[in-house]
Amino acid sequence: MGRPDLTRRHLLAAAGGLTVAASFGFAALGTGADALASGADTRVRYWNLFSGGDGANMIAMLDAFRKANPDIDVKDSTLQWGNPFYTKLAMAAAGDRAPDLGVMHMGRVTGFSPGRLLDPWDVDLLAKYGVREQDFNPALWKRGVIDGKLYALPLDIHVQLCFYRKDVLGKAGLLGDDGRMIPVTSTDEWFDVLKKAKAVQKKGLQTIGLWTNDQNFQWWFFVAFYTQLGGRWFDDGDTQVLFDTDKATQVLEFLRRHVTDGYVIPGAPTGEQFINGAPFTWEGNWSVPVFSGAKLDYGATPLPPVFGTQATHAESHAFVLPHQANRGGATNEGAHELAAYVVRHALQWAAGGHIPAYTPTLSTAAYKKLTPQNEYVSAMDHQATEPKVWFAGSTGVLAQDLGPVVVSSTMGSAKPDKVAQTMKSHLTKLLASKNPMDGRTAAQGGAVA
Q1: Alpha carbons 92 and 174: distance in angstroms, whole number
Q2: What is the per-residue pLDDT across 230-254, written as a single tens digit (0 to 9) for each?
């Protein structure tokens, strides 16, 4: 398409704002010179960004694959989460030193120059190992499709949730006959729930943890509620900003009210307060192991549809094939087999709170017994995602630009209506800006499912 080839030099220049350390350590990226595991015929080098509980679950899944497939030697490496991971992966792909398999957040795929830094999946090969398009939520699968080709194979959906203490809500009369939080369908109903919960909660605690001064969480919450209002970002061709400042102002005023009405203690540790008895906290589903480990009597539901329509912020971990000049053969097939195996055996992954992307898992008796996972699995069907543009995605430019602006409104240093105008101005500049990976604007990116 007349675009210059990417080189490490281009990527180093493009990555100037991505918190890149001098220790990329390309000598440590792996050359395949080390010996294969005993009995293995093929090696698959796999990079991921999973640590903590997710890391332990992924290791367990990889060990299960190794046991079932002794002819494939999986050499896995866990790198630092966030922009350092993405920059290192991009440079490895540009320098033909990429691993055979990688993991990305789905929202970052469009900006990763698909076809240049990422290779497309062979869907027939995936089908050979039991993974087919019809086994996935249609909207989720399409997020990984660029220019008609699949570049991201979904592993999960991870969502923002409303965690609640059943012991506190029970005292406040806020539990239904099924033992779950009563439905909420408007902002008035939501603040009435908070008022009742506050009346019976422990003194000295906040009513709800809202991460009021965290730019990522505030951005995720904004995306959810703006989507509930039917707000749009850009036109279908990504040439015009359609951001609705009136709807944005409604969302910003809603978030701000939690502080002005005294339901939030700005800066308070949200998870700790919840464990100590705070009625609510809004957190990612990755907090499930923490709260379950604390043996709380709690539930978790998608963010309340206070603007009438179900929508909760969602992202997805997805498997990708970092670009290799000579991709193919047994190693490439091994990468497809490994990814398909993990996707199809994601019950272990669900223990970390994530909703498995492979829908047959959701209908198994074992998954249906998982609590509170079985309470919020419906979030799969009403995902609020960032726009499909190069500057979106987890820790992406969009979140870095707009997240702090949302925080300024929630914390009270700027008025919601003024912040909404500022957000539209940022979106206008971003839409006209070029992706440093390939020098194209969103309109030129061809990100069409």
Answers
A1: 53
A2: 999 999 999 999 999 999 999 999 9
Tokens of 430: 């971003």
What phi and psi values does residue 284 have, to the nearest 5 degrees?
-75, 160
Give the per-residue pLDDT at 53: 87
- Cα 152 to Cα 293: distance, rounded to the nearest angstrom: 32
Distances (CA, A) of 6 to 11, 12, 91, 109, 222: 7, 10, 9, 17, 35
Q: Mind spelling out the 3-state secondary structure of 350-381?
A: HCCCCEECEHHHHHCHHHHCCCCHHHHHHHHH
The whole-number pLDDT of residue 104 equals 94
CB–CB of 44/75 below 8 Å?
yes
Sheet strands (E) in 325-412: 355-356, 383-384
Spatial distance between the Cα atoms of 31 and 29, rounded to a whole number of angstroms: 7
CB proximity list for 164: less than 8 A, separation 6 or greater: 181, 279, 280, 298, 299, 300, 301
Q: How far apart are CA 269 and CA 69, in angstroms?
A: 44
Q: What is the pTM of this model?
A: 0.89
Q: What are phi and psi of 210, to 5 degrees?
A: -125, 5
- Amino acid sitting at position 162: C
Q: How far apart are CA 72 and CA 338, in angstroms?
A: 9
Count CA atoms within 13 Å of residue 120 on its CB side: 10
Q: How far is it, in rounded angstroms, from Cα 46 to Cα 23?
A: 20
Q: In angstroms, rounded to a whole number, what is the distance separating the alpha carbons of residues 176 and 404?
A: 37
Tokens 């939080």 sit on residue: 181
**Is cis: bond before 304, omega within 30 of 0?**
no
